[in-house]
Every structure is written in C-alpha cells, then in structure tokens.
Task: structure prediction
Amino acid sequence: MPSLPPDILAFLAVILRGLQLAAQSLVLGGILFLHGFLIPLTPVLAGRAREMEATGLRWIAWGGLGLAGVALLSAAATLAQLVAGLGIAASEALGADFIQWSVVMAVAALGVAGVARQGPGGVQAMVLAALGLMVLAASVLSSHAFARLDDRPYFMIAGALHQAGAGLWIGGIPFMLLALSRLPDSRDRLMVGMRFSHLFTGAVGVLLLGAAMLAWGYIRTPGALIGTAYGIMTGAKIALLGVLLSLAAMNRTSVRAEARDKGQFRLRRFAEVEIGIGVTVLMIAASMASQPPAVDQSEFQASIAEIVGRMAPTAPRLISPPPDSLASVQQVSTEDTLLADKMWSEFNHNWSGVFVLTMGLLALAHGTGKAGWAGHWPLMFLVMAAALLVRSDPESWPLGPRGFFETMADPEVFQHRLVALLLIPFGWFEWSVRTGRRTSPGAALIFPVLCAVGAMLLLVHSHTLTDVKERFLIEFSHIPMGLFGVLAGWLRWLQIRGQGRISRVAGVLWPLCFSMVGVLLLFYRET
Result:
C-alpha cells in the first residue's frame, strides 16, 4: 500500500471510511435491538426472545469483527497516505490523531465481537452498550469535529448526535427484519413494527438535530451550500435522506396495514431499499470527511451564474479532437491542449449519454410488454464498456504512448476503469435475465446492485485538479447523475422483489431515472 500514490490512497481511505460507518451502524443498531426492543419485550416474546438474542448477538459479533478490520485498514491507508504525501517517517505519522483513534476503535470493536460471541445471558448487553459508546466516541474523535480549533465541543456534540442517529436508524433496520422473521403471528409482527417505528422516530430526531448543528457550523450560508463541493455533497445527503424518510413513512403505513395482515411483505421490501440507500448516505458522509468544510472554502465558492453557465444545455459534442492534440498525451499544458482535453472529456460523456438514454428508453419500452425485441438493450453496456476502456483516457494504450497498467496509478484513470469494468457484469447479467437465459432470482438482482454501487462510486468520485472551482463545477454535474443512478438501482430492486402495484410503479420509475442519467451525460460540458 505505501507504494500507491497519495490520491489513490485518499480514494481508498474514503471507501474504507464508508465501510467503517456501515459496520459501526450495524453494531449500534444491534445495541438498539438489545436495549430498545429485546430486553423490554422479553416477557411478551416468551421463548422466542432467546433465539432472537442469539442471532442478534451473532450479527453484532460480525459487525464488530468487520469494524475492527476496516478500522485497521483505514489506519494503514492513512499512515501510507501521510508517509507518501508529506514525506515523513512512519514512526512520526503514527502519532496522528486519526490513526490513534482508529486503533482505539479497532480495539473497542474487537471487544464488541468478543463479548457478543459469548452468547445470550449475563451482562453482555450492558458491556456492549459501553463498548458501543467507545466506538462512537472514537469515530467522532477521528472526524472533522475534533479537528476544529474553534467551538470544538459544539462540533463534537453535533457529530456524535449525527452519527448516533444515523447508526441506530440504518443499523437497526436489519434487526427489525430479524424480529419480523421470527414472529409469524400478525399481532406480534404489528408489535415489532410499532416498537421499531417509535425507536427509529427517535433516532431520526437525533440525526436531524445533529445534521442541523453541523450544517450551521460547516456551511452557514446558501452560497456555501450551493457553491462548494462540501455543500453539494450535503445537498446529495439531504436528497437521499428525503427518500429515506419517504420510505420510513411508507413503512409506518405498512405497519398499520399489518393489523389487516397486508403490510408484512411491503414492509420488508421497503426496508431492504432503506438499507441500501442508507449505506449510500454513509459513503457520501465518508467522502465529505475527506473535504474541507464549506466555511473554509469561501474564496473558492462558485457563483450561481458560473453554475448556471456550466449546467445550461448545449449541443452534445459527438466528434472528438485528435488524440495527439491533448495535453494528457503531449505532456504539455497550454491553453489549446487543455481545451482539447476538456473537449475529449465532453465527447466521452456525451456519447455515454447517447448509450444510457437509449438503454433507458428501450427498458421502458420492454416493460410495456409490447416490444420484446427491446429486451436486448443490456448488450449496449458491453459496447459502452469497450468504448470507455479505449477512449476515456487517451494518454493510455491503445491511443496514447503510456502502457495500460502504467496509468493505473493515476486515481482518475483508476476510477474510470473501475466504473467501465462494472459495466460488463451490468450488461451480461441483465441481458441473461431479460432473455430468460438466467431464471434464478439472485441473477436478476445483480443489475440493480451494480447499478447502485456504480452510482455510489460516482458520488464519491473525485478529480485530481489543482483548480478547486473547476473541480467543483465538474463534480456538481456528477451529483445528480449519481442520485438518479442510485434511485434507478434500488427501484429496479423493488420491482424485482416487490409485487402488485409497488412492483409496477417501480418498473416504470427506474427506467425513467436511468434515462435521466443519460440526459445529464448527453449535455455534460467542461468548456
């Protein structure tokens, strides 16, 4: 890992931070399950309580082990990043607060796993709660909150509330599904649903309070919200949070419908989507942790006029400049070569838009049941992947002088190729499903999962530009693409896993979201 460039290490650090928040949420959600549901309702649950506790503790143990591993990997990535980026000795870098608190988190997480593996009974629940607080404290102490020199207690309280609320809510959903699966009687399932609904309402309240405090401290002005990378990432979180709250409201309705024995199936399906979108929100939070807060970027804020000027639709660029005119190929940065680089990027994005929009419209036509031939649309992913691998980075083989693997050290090239390679299973599995070559339910779920994961990577994707404002303007256009991609993936999941009206509505909405990604790509511009 130390041999990797700092930018690659920074990207890996964001992914690891997101995985850490996800594992942390599972631990906190398990503690909520024990103290907020299982212990208070043990007399009502009778003999089923011990079985649920044993399964819940196994999940908590897995979460603890995963958290310990990710925390140590994150510390190692940060250590390598400091050594490579700052040129300091590893022994000196070990003194960094983030690394030390990551190690503390790993130790606490191993404690969680060890205690949870002891099985039901004893004082495990209380010890787990104490260790969970230690994990949360270590997470806050390794975040922006502890790094602030001014008003540090305010930011630490806000960060703790925000992380606790998110962890208890998102991490508690799997345990709600666990409880529902163990109680076949509709009255018991209603009790489970109502209990978790109240617990999650409290967790959401804590999350929103912490979020409001952080927004005031880190953003403060509408200009900073709109004109900085930290601000628009916050906007993306708010948008997905709105989707999560809508799903939570529908789950609450499903809980009431459970009394009529009609809401169980719908509740489970909405909860699955809630988990997926929740993990995406945690990844966005991890990406934000790698960026300076908006209040510290006032001199680099983009104006409304600059944003509108960049986002205004223009004719797509469907003809590229010659490869030998590019700065990335000539290794010379002049006004002409830099302009050619931007035109090349627009060409790639605009043609990708043609592919994606066409696929979205064909998927919509196929969903009507009147255009069976349109079911072959996923094969366009294979063509698109080949085009991106060849043309996305012209300094690389086969168009440029640099070797294919040589340029993998460039973080932007690395991310481009990662996304391009994801398109191959995208197309192959979905084509197999659409044409009946694969009939297993698991195969049908490959596409929505990869769609959601690819869109999530787009949301945390960064560009290595020295011009902060230019980098922001490029990323500004990526945010809505990522949001529509995430929605397309999880709506497709809901179409497959749902039934009746929910499945039909999701079957119409996901191709529309997918087509919107194509529209945004079609009009993408950098000049």
About this structure: The chain has a mean pLDDT of 85. The CA atoms of residues 169 and 508 lie 29 Å apart. The longest helix spans residues 6-45. The radius of gyration is 24 Å.
